[in-house]
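Researcher: I've been going back and forth with a colleague about how Protease HtpX homolog might be arranged in three dimensions. Neither of us has a model we trust, so I'd like an independent prediction. The organism is Lactobacillus xylocopicola, in case that matters for your notes. Sequence below.
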Amino acid sequence: MLFQQIARNKRKTVGIMTVFAVILALAGAGLGYLFGNRPWLGLGIALVLSVIYMLLVLPNPANLVMSLNHAQEISEQDNPTLWHVVEDMAMVGRVPMPRVFIIADQSPNAFATGRDPDHAAIAVTQGLLDLMNREELEGVLGHEISHIRNYDILVSTVAAVLVGVISYLSGLASHFIWWADDDNDSDSDSTFVVVFKVVAIIFVLILGPICASLAQMALSRNREYLADASAVELTRNPQGLISALEKISGTGPMKKADASSAGLYIEDPLRKKNGLSHLFDSHPPTADRIKRLEKM
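Model: Here is an independent structure prediction for Protease HtpX homolog. You can compare it with whatever you and your colleague have in mind.
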């Protein structure tokens, strides 16, 4: 059951990242079509922007994310219990000891970030340390170590970069749409060309960013299920993580969590309620996560 779930979630992740690539290609091609009837040029610009953005972000994403979330790095002497639990989970997960941070917030939560296992970091809130016993803390940190071991931290960073590039292309199109090449609006245009141009405008301005956000949320939800399963593989004790999720789900939102980092946390730090639809949820329902853990 455990290994089948891990394999299934990995396949879903590949599918979602493929959707990301398709959305980026369509947004770039649509932009190129609008500005000069050159979809391939737009596609090339989108790819170049993605590469440049990644080169700027990927060298050290951990410092940036920790700074955005007001996290303070600690040493072993500052909190030996937390340090040793992280050390134990890293040893079991066979990853290097990550840097450890604490966020001065009473809402219990935690996340992992970084480029790869050699450049990873884990942050926990003071509220998590105050509320959890050791068994629950092991469940939470096993979950975060799993994100590092599964390279979720890299996938999340790449997804954030792709969403940023697609949003930038949309913003660019919205500012310069009136200067778009209107050669295709001549009397000789076919109905098909006019319809195609309208569809391109709608996609680049509206649907592209929405689809990218939906894909990012789906990816985040999928990663949480996988990390839950992997945490049980490390701790051999699903009850610790189940109990931790039950405690966390009954608490209030964090006060200073960075919204762009919300998908990294073990539970949504903003506790957003999205009404009838779960499409924009950054995390799967806690009840569903617990139900899956209970079957292991």
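Researcher: What would you highlight for our discussion?
Model: I'd start with this: The chain has a mean pLDDT of 81. After that, consider the following. The chain is about 65% helix and 5% strand.
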